[in-house]
């Protein structure tokens, strides 16, 4: 009897620390190009094992392979976070030296915790629902928003920050991980959402530059950290998050904007990921002391940033707990016919 697919993925992902420990103790593999090559070989081997694990299935959603591969890298990320915070050792030394040295920064450590805990559990739940015939569209969009937000801050942040002059070949393995969430999001957005029929008679509720200088230098100096991640995050908020918030304001005032049900989930995942990494990095011991949040300003800064994360989440919850306002009503007569058919 075969184990459930999510159990197979879980067991496969546990091989990640074994692979890291092995490479960390074989000096011949600890050069820049061999590290990139080994990464590709490992991911290819994981894909082959996944094909064998689901070979008995008549039809497998292509998204499964992406989610399962990402599950493996999530454990790599969690291993990195635990080693940087000195809970474990002997796994990531070679990769930080010859692969991606930026992974030792406070922002990258918090990002690794987010991937290794939140994304990893999300993938296992999605895969379980996928093979049980249940909908996972909303969970997939939550991950896609979170992952895209992570990548559009990480990659430009490395390039323009202090690690930009020390980019090694292994860094470019991020390219497929950058493209995959966009592909997954496009696939998920193209699939119909599962929503109840809302009849027409359903009643629903209507729903100064000096200041900036002071805030940055006296309250949240992490925004000036030369690693580059905070600056890219703020640009992403300005050019992507702000226009979406304006669109959401319109959607909250205009009945029938069904796109709100998908995009609020996507946005909540993106903001939750970026705020988790930003808050954690601004307090983390790996951030230079001069860029950490001052002890006497801790509460206002953290409260503000938690609110920035909470508002999109609450908006998504509101949209999905009371979806009727955002659905295009079906005429009452048509609803009765649907009931008779069922």
TrEMBL record:
Regarding the membrane, this protein is recorded as: Multi-pass membrane protein
This protein's GO cellular component annotations are: endoplasmic reticulum membrane; endoplasmic reticulum-Golgi intermediate compartment membrane
User: Which Gene Ontology biological process is one annotated for this entry?
Assistant: regulation of lipid metabolic process
Indicate the transmembrane segments per the record: 7-23, 35-55, 62-82, 102-127, 139-159, 171-189, 232-252, 298-317
Q: Where is the EXPERA domain?
A: 165-316
Reply yes or no: does the keyword Protein biosynthesis apply. Answer: no
- Name the principal localization, coarsely classed: membrane
Q: Which UniProt keywords apply?
A: Membrane, Repeat, Transmembrane, Transmembrane helix
Q: What subcellular locations does the record give?
A: Endomembrane system
Q: Its family?
A: Belongs to the TM6SF family.
**What is the official name of this protein in its record?**
Transmembrane 6 superfamily member 2a
Lineage, highest ranks first: Eukaryota, Metazoa, Chordata, Craniata, Vertebrata
């Amino acid at each position: 009897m075969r184990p459930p697919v999510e159990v197979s993925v879980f067991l496969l992902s546990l091989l990640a620390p074994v692979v890291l420990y092995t490479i960390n103790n074989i000096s011949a593999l600890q050069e820049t190009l061999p590290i990139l090559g080994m990464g590709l070989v490992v991911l290819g081997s994981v894909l082959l094992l996944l094909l064998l694990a689901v070979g008995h299935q008549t039809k497998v959603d292509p998204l499964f392979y992406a989610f399962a591969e990402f599950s493996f890298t999530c454990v790599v990320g969690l291993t990195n976070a635990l080693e940087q915070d000195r809970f474990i050792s002997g796994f990531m030394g070679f990769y930080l030296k010859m692969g991606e040295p930026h992974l030792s920064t406070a922002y990258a450590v918090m990002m690794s915790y987010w991937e290794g805990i939140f994304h990893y559990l999300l993938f296992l739940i999605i895969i379980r629902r996928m093979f049980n015939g249940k909908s996972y569209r909303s969970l997939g969009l939550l991950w896609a928003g979170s992952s895209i937000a992570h990548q559009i801050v990480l990659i430009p942040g490395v390039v323009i920050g202090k690690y930009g002059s020390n980019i090694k070949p292994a860094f470019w393995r991020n390219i497929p991980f950058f493209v995959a969430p966009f592909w997954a999001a496009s696939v998920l957005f193209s699939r119909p959402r599962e929503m109840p029929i809302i009849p027409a008679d359903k009643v629903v509720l209507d729903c100064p530059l000096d200041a900036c200088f002071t805030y940055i230098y006296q309250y949240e100096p992490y925004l000036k950290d030369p690693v580059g991640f905070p600056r890219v995050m703020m640009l992403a908020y300005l050019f992507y998050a702000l226009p979406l918030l304006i669109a959401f304001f319109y959607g909250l005032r205009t009945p029938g904007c069904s796109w709100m049900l998908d995009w609020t989930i996507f946005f909540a995942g993106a903001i939750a990921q970026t705020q988790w990494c930003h808050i954690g990095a601004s307090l983390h011991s790996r951030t230079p002391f001069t860029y950490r949040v001052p002890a006497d300003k801790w509460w206002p800064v953290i409260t503000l940033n938690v609110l920035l994360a909470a508002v999109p989440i609450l908006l998504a919850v509101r949209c999905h707990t009371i979806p009727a306002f955002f659905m295009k009503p079906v005429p009452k007569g048509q609803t009765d016919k649907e009931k008779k058919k069922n």
